[in-house]
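Page header: ASSEMBLY MODEL / two components / 224 residues total.
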Amino acid sequence: KQEVTQIPAALSVPEGENLVLNCSFTDSAIYNLQWFRQDPGKGLTSLLLIQSSQREQTSGRLNASLDKSSGRSTLYIAASQPGDSATYLCAVKAAGNKLTFGGGTRVLVKP
Amino acid sequence: GAVVSQHPSRVICKSGTSVKIECRSLDFQATTMFWYRQFPKQSLMLMATSNEGSKATYEQGVEKDKFLINHASLTLSTLTVTSAHPEDSSFYICSARFGETQYFGPGTRLLVL
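Prediction written out in full:
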C-alpha cells in the first residue's frame, strides 16, 4: 500500500527565505507526482505536476524535483512571501489512477 | 482553466438528517469524479471514485449505504450523507479528472449537531 509522508509537518520562516518542502513515498511505481496548495478552509490548487519520466518541473518561483528510485520529491519556493503561507500537499498517482496524499506541510512566512 | 464547483460551501444540520453535496465541472466533461474527506489538520482521504453512468467504487472502510454517490451526468456528481451524525462532521472535497489532471472543488464544510 502506497504511503506518502511529508516532512516537516509545519514550517515558519521569515520573508525572503527559500522554502524547502519534502515528500517521500514508499512505492516507486508511480505515474506522476503533484504538489498542491491549500489555504485554510479552501480546496486545493495544483502547483506542479511531474510525470514519472521527469526529474523536475518549474513554474515561476516554484521548482519541484522528483527522484522516483529513492521515492522522494522536493518543492522549492524561492524568496518566500507572506502570501505563500498555506498548507502544501504532495500526492502520487499510481495503479488504479488514485491519488494518495501526504499529510501536508503548514507553512507560515512571517513579514 | 478547468473549474470545479461545490454546493453548498458549508452546511449545518441536525443529527439524523441527510445532506446532499453537489460537485460540478463547469467547463469540461468529467467521466470520473472523486470524493474526499478531510479532518482538521489532516490530509485528504479518498472516499470513493464516481464514474458517470455506473456505480461508485468505495474505498475500504467507507460505508456505501451511508455515503450515497450519484454521477448522473458528465458534469455533476452528488454525495449524500444519510442519517448524519456528529462524527460525520468534516470537510468534503470533490475532484474531477480531465485528461491526466484532477481538478479540485473548493470543498464543503459539514457540521452535524
